Amino acid sequence: MKKFLLLLLTLCMVFGAVSCAKEPSASFEQPVVIKGVKISLDDEAKDILPAMGALIDYDETPTCNYEGMDKTYVYNGVQLETYTMKNIEYVRKILLLDDSSETPEGLRVGASEETVTEFYGEPTEKFDGGYRYDDKKDSNRLEIGLRDGKVTYVLYCKIEGNKKN
Q1: Which three-class secondary structure state does DSSP give residue 118?
Q2: Are 60 and 72 in contact (CB under 8 A)?
Q3: Residue-averaged pLDDT of the chain
Q4: How far apart are CA 40 and CA 28, in angstroms?
Q5: How sure is the predictor about 34, in pLDDT bands with cuts at 50, 70 and 90?
Q6: pTM of the model
Q7: Could you give the angle at the alpha carbon of 151 between the alpha carbons of 43 and 107, nearest 5°?
Q8: Which of the two residues, 110 and 33, has the higher pLDDT score?
Q9: Beta carbons of 75 and 57 less than 8 angstroms apart
Q10: How far lies 123's CA from each of 44, 96, 141, in Å?
Q11: Which of 112, 70, 104, 115 is nearest to 90 (CA)?
């Protein structure tokens, strides 16, 4: 009888822990607010870029996927990458580089690894240097860089390509 009760108690603990485990959050689909501007993947860049402040660095390369140029804009604490389709520039990547901006859930560069899993649950993929959370429904990815148990960057991007829906 003791063995049965011990087995039953163990199963309850295991199933209880599994039922409490968070699925990777899809909240990264929400816009990120940077310098008071809401930014989501595939947003038109024309009103976003001027609101980011002083441009620190800029680079462009011919696109491999569409006509036009792929462009990288670096501002204080953030990097935005864009692509052009039908002469309209769209946001392809949002990279948070310091603690001046945060995710909609409140995650900032410098936060602990425990905070990441508290906000987002177990990652879709762990890699050497961070976690990836994929929302396959929208082909969006949230990648969080980690070093010595601290967040070093937060990246929002597409899982596959940069096709505007």
Answers
A1: helix
A2: yes
A3: 83
A4: 9
A5: very high
A6: 0.79
A7: 55
A8: 110
A9: no
A10: 29, 19, 11
A11: 70
